Amino acid sequence: MFDLAPYNTFGLHVGAKNLVVVKDLASLENFDDERYLILGHGSDVLFTDDFEGTILVNAIRGIEITDDKDYYYIKVGGGEILDDLIVHLLNKSIVGLENLSKIPGTVGAAPVQNVGAYGVEIGDYIEQIDVFNLKTKQIIHLSQSQCEFDYRSSIFKTQRLCHYFISHVHLKIKKSNEFVLSYKELQELDVKDAFAIRNKVIALREAKLPDPRFIGNAGSFFKNPIIDEVKLKAIRKIYPNVPVFTYNDQKNYYKVAAGFLIDKAGLRGVTHGNAGTWEHQALVIVNRGRAKPHEIVALAKYIVAVVKDKFDIYLEPEVRIFGAKGEIQWQDI
Ligand code: EPU
After folding, report:
1. Are strands 320-323 and 45-47 parallel, antiparallel or unpaired?
2. Fewer CB atoms near the end CB (10 Å): N or C, the chain?
């Protein structure tokens, strides 16, 4: 058994029967295991058990940049670290991804959840994704629209395309790209250049989010729920200042801050066994040291029940959950 502790940022000691570090697609040509799952850095996953199959670690590297009059075109290996890519681009004065600074994980994993922060989502900049179909051994190119990007979601998540190995991500960034400063904290910056934005984003993240190198966690455990006007009015009666964001410009639907709801339900900074919620951001479940998977699951279930009871809102996990035989749905645990 391989110990997966270095391959999941929760730092859980779960095992896997086999583990292959994939540096090029040639090494997948003869891969014929029936049960496998693809990982980047495991920054958005929860293992509930030892995995009875092969972990394929995406380690395809390389960044190639070309341009024309109006755009930069960037082809990136799925195993590159997202934050290293951001620095690489900013050093070449290619701006756009700075709001995503310090999001943990790899470029190949980023589109699966359509990672986002401070008003930017990676899907906004993706022109194409190259995937290797592990069943047919064919390379397929998916356009941005085929990826069906949505809030913390994409076709890779919704249709559970677990046999699609993301080899390369193609970004397309306008040369005249403008900064996204919709968040108050970024508007308040004196100097509005890409590195100032990056530094501010890093400071904001460090103030709120635990560093997985020291405290096991997978970032936001739940998605911010989308609610209708009736529910929003009910919450606003008690909490007029509940933080609300627009959702895909849809009228009458709102994204509310799950962290706020969990906090107001009295569950910020709590400890249950070896699991807990982070003192500065209740949306983050942490491993307080020697947590076992079932302790994380039990706390998450408890949070869902308390929030449902208090606000009549059902929280859904943002992290992907894997058991002995593969991905499992939250409802089935
Ligand atoms: N809040 C509380 N108490 C808490 C947590 C939050 O009152 O314990 C309030 C905050 O004061 C703020 C609001 O809730 O007014 C929103 O909190 P925050 O700005 O931290 O953002 P979030 O909605 O909780 C989302 C993403 C983060 C991303 C930030 C910044 C999701 C699920 N999470 O968090 O992404 O960094 O916005 O854009 O969408 C992640 O996905 O892992 C992640 C960290």
Report:
1. parallel
2. N
Centre of ligand 1 from the C-alpha of residue 208, in Å: 9
Work out the end-to-end distance of the chain between its first and last CA atoms, rounded to an integer number of angstroms. Answer: 24
Indicate which atom in ligand 1 lies nearest the CA of residue 99. 38
pLDDT tens per residue, range 20-61: 999 999 999 999 999 999 999 999 999 999 999 999 999 999
pTM (global) more than 0.85: yes
d(CA 20, ligand 1 centre) in Å: 34
Residues contacting residue 84 through CB under 8 Å, at least 6 positions apart: none
Q: Which residues are catalytic?
A: 152, 220, 318
C-alpha–C-alpha distance, residues 294 and 11, integer Å = 14
CA of 235 to the centre of ligand 1 (A): 18
Domains of the chain from N-terminus onward: 2-58 (3.30.43.10), 63-174 (3.30.465.10), 222-316 (3.90.78.10)
